[in-house]
Design brief:
The chain crosses the membrane at residues 7-26, 38-60, 72-90, 274-295, 307-336. By secondary structure, the chain is of the alpha+beta class. The chain is built from 9 helices and 6 strands; from the N terminus they run H-H-H-H-E-E-E-E-E-E-H-H-H-H-H. The protein folds into 2 domains: 2-110 and 266-336, no CATH class; 128-252, lipopolysaccharide transport protein A fold (Sandwich).
Amino acid sequence: MKKLSQFFLYLFLIVLVVGVVGFIYFLQFAKLQNLDALIATIRLIYTYLPISAGLALLWGLVFQGGMQQTNALGSVIMYIFLIMGIAIVLQEIAVPSFTEIKQQSLILQAKKAKSLPKLKLNPTNVSAAEFANISWFVSKENLAFAQKNTFLSFEKLYKAPGEIYYGINFKIVAFDNQGKLDYVFIAPQIKAYQTDLYALSARVYEYKNGNLTGQKGYNVKKITLPYPIDAVYSLRAHGNLEDISLIHVLRYNDYVYGSHINFYHIGILMFFKISYYIMTIVIIILCAGFGLTFQNQRVVGKDIVPALSFLIVSTAVTIMVYDILLGAVNMIYGLII
């Protein structure tokens, strides 16, 4: 545990330098707003965490020494798990959460308000009057997914407190087994909670052999969705695909694999995020090996010149290894796609 605390002390110092320099740059030179600068800084720390974690372990072994080969494996494994935990918190929890907070703050700024109005929302009670408040909520546009021969889409989906969702211009287009149009369901407004969807002023157009055979209208029509509405919303990015959390991908894995439209984009996301974690583990293992070698030889000593030279060379080599691994990932992605 003492050695781990030394490793994390080096990691804290490296991350602190990267974070402070990055935040100042984004705030003063890139002219980002406070929250945007914070999100960009978190992304910067996360992106270079493999380098920071590797160097912290390497420097801790070389400059502190005292670790036996027999004890190294357990400490390195524990260190890897802790670094993975930090990476998950930064990218899978912090970035998506702060992105949602940023979107909500922009809405409040536009309305010149400090907080959301107090609204009494019930997931099962539906009325057209509720839609007067949806402009207060964070939204995502052009959401769509497929289930077998049925395609569902929302022009806009608003997330209200209590995991209640309001949608604009909801549409279902279904085809028969021959690929001909079966029916079209259209609703200008919907309210959804979990897998229950309530469509207001809905209309259904029925087809046979591709020809319109009839239509029906409903004041309120309840539909059971094949997946929770939160899955549809959570696995749609505000703009940057990296905003989607891998936690949501695992939580709603049935939606990911069952929804044809979303699988391609989520698949790309999963490929790069899993590759990132693998690269991090590889760099940490390599740095652990070099660190144990150099601590036994004690080539650095207490002289400032060898120490400074080692810092520069080890940083350059670690960055080079990271760049090589990143290039390999991009090459594999190019071959697959």
